[in-house]
């Protein structure tokens, strides 16, 4: 396999031998303006992106792939970095990509799940609102979701406890190169430019009856039995998120005109990812991001924010914010479901900004199908006027692509399609 990588703004060039498959076509139209803004400033961005860490031997061409030639990796330690007047160059984004901290509010539909499937009228109303959002930008809120407030509170509390631990303790479960689980202090071990101002802890959840306590076992095995209470809380939280995801999948099936059980069955025995996000205060929030612009490569994201603003979505050629609502979960469509819906529902570009005064935390559950399950749209979504947009693939293939070969952005699914088809990515 020969892989050639270039800067994120010029897109990854990948070559790999693969069987010919039915190709996708164009980049989703809602991102075209955003992409054009970058293409008109290539030279300027190229010069800016040449900033590299003094402690890392790298180049702009290594934007997408893990660094293999580290000397002394940068350590993201907010308590130390915040003592400096400014932030390291590795966290500073190009001028034409820097954040707008004050974005107008996005009008996101609020879906009441209390009477879901109990009354057909309520179900149809919820289905219609979700459908409108998913065709436009893929974001909506759900309330009366049946998740215990105490469970949500406990999940936030244990998240605070984990990120309050000394760095050396958190590094006991350091995320390894090419893997999706573990602790990550920014992405300093993988990238050297446009780093996010955040810490994360990610772990796998398997809806597998043969491994009923896989999250709890992860905490005990990785950190010791004193972390069993952590494991119990996040085991219960992930189970609740998985159940909520399947309910939402029923609504999405109704919206798309397929059996309500089709997507629910597809995601049973899911191999999902749970992530705890911690965004420390930043003395220069106008220079960096907590999370850079990207589309989620997964199927469905269920996010619970704390009380601090930070989430922004790119809609109608501008960035809009989604305010925290402690009673609601933010739900958005990911790339895998966009492929599963044959491009009818949109995986929307979004990002997280930081601020100089308050830390921000969020809980993100990423629903993913079983790793060996083939992702392809149901027959109801295919006809003579609607050909296949993406090739067959498995979640494990897309996960490998994003962890080893490509930094998730607005074009991940199209880049992955071209990678599978042995076609150079333009």
Uncertain regions: pLDDT < 50 for 5+ in a row?
A: 1-34, 37-71
CATH class of the domain at 91-371: Mainly Beta
The major pleated sheet works out as: 8 strands, mixed
Residues in helix, %: 25-40%
**Helical segment count:** 12
Number of strands: 16
- Amino- and carboxy-terminal Cα gap: 19 Å
Return the CATH topology of the domain at 91-371.
Jelly Rolls
Proportion of β residues? 15-25%
* H-E order: EEHHHEHEHHEEHHHEEEEEEHEEEEHH
> What is the average per-residue confidence, as pLDDT, rounded to a whole number?
82
- Sheet with most strands: strand arrangement: 3-4-12-9-14-7-6-5
Radius of gyration based on Cα positions:
21 Å
Overall 3D form: globular
CATH superfamily of the domain at 91-371: B-lactam Antibiotic, Isopenicillin N Synthase, Chain
In terms of structural class, how would the helical and strand content be classed? alpha+beta
**What is the annotated CATH architecture of the domain at 91-371?**
Sandwich
Task: Characterise the protein shown here.
The protein has 426 residues and is of the alpha+beta class. It has helices at 32-39, 42-49, 78-81, 120-136, 149-163, 167-170, 214-223, 228-256, 260-266, 335-340, 395-405, 412-420; strands at 2-4, 13-15, 110-112, 139-143, 182-185, 199-206, 271-279, 291-294, 300-305, 311-315, 318-321, 329-333, 350-352, 360-367, 374-375, 393-394. The strands form four sheets. Strands 3-4-12-9-14-7-6-5 form an eight-stranded mixed β-sheet. A four-stranded antiparallel β-sheet has the order 8-13-10-11, with no helix packed on it. The longest helix is centred in the middle third of the chain and has 29 residues, at 228-256. Residues 1-34 and 37-71 have low confidence and may be disordered.
């Amino acid at each position: 396999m020969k892989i050639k990588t270039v800067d994120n703004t010029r897109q990854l060039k990948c070559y790999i031998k693969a069987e010919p498959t039915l190709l996708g076509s164009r980049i989703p139209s809602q991102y075209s303006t955003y992409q054009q803004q970058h293409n008109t400033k290539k030279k300027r961005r190229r010069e800016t992106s040449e900033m590299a860490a003094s402690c890392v031997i790298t180049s702009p061409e290594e934007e997408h792939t893990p660094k293999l030639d580290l000397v002394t990796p940068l350590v993201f330690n907010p308590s130390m970095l915040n003592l400096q007047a400014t932030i390291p160059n590795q966290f500073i984004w190009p001028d034409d990509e820097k954040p707008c901290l004050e974005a107008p509010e996005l009008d996101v539909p609020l879906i009441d799940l209390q009477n879901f499937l109990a009354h057909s009228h309520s179900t149809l109303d919820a289905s219609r609102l979700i459908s409108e959002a998913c065709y436009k930008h893929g974001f909506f809120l759900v309330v009366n979701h049946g998740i215990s407030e105490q469970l949500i509170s406990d999940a936030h509390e244990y998240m605070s406890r984990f990120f309050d631990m000394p760095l050396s303790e958190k590094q006991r479960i350091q995320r390894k190169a090419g893997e999706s689980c573990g602790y990550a202090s920014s992405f300093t071990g993988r990238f050297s430019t446009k780093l996010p101002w955040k810490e994360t802890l990610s772990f796998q959840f398997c809806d597998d009856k043969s491994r009923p306590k896989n999250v709890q076992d992860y905490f005990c095995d990785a950190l010791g039995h004193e972390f069993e209470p952590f494991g119990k809380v996040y085991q219960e939280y992930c189970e609740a998120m998985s159940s909520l995801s399947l309910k939402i999948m029923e609504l999405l099936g109704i919206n798309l005109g397929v059996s309500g059980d089709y997507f629910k069955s597809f995601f049973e025995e899911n191999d999902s990812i749970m992530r705890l996000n911690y965004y420390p205060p930043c003395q220069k929030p106008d220079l960096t991001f907590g999370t850079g612009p990207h589309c989620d490569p997964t199927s469905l994201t269920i996010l619970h924010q704390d009380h601090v603003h930070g989430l922004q979505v790119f809609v109608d050629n501008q960035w809009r914010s989604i305010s925290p609502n402690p009673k609601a979960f933010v739900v958005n469509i990911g790339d895998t479901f966009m492929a599963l819906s044959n491009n009818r529902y949109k995986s929307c570009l979004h990002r997280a900004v930081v601020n100089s005064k308050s830390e921000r935390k969020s809980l993100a559950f990423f629903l993913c199908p079983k790793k060996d399950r083939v992702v392809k749209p149901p027959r109801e979504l295919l006809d003579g006027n609607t050909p296949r947009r993406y090739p067959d693939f498995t979640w494990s293939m897309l996960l490998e692509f994003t962890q080893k070969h490509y930094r998730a952005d607005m074009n991940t699914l199209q880049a992955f399609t071209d990678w599978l088809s042995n076609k150079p990515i333009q």
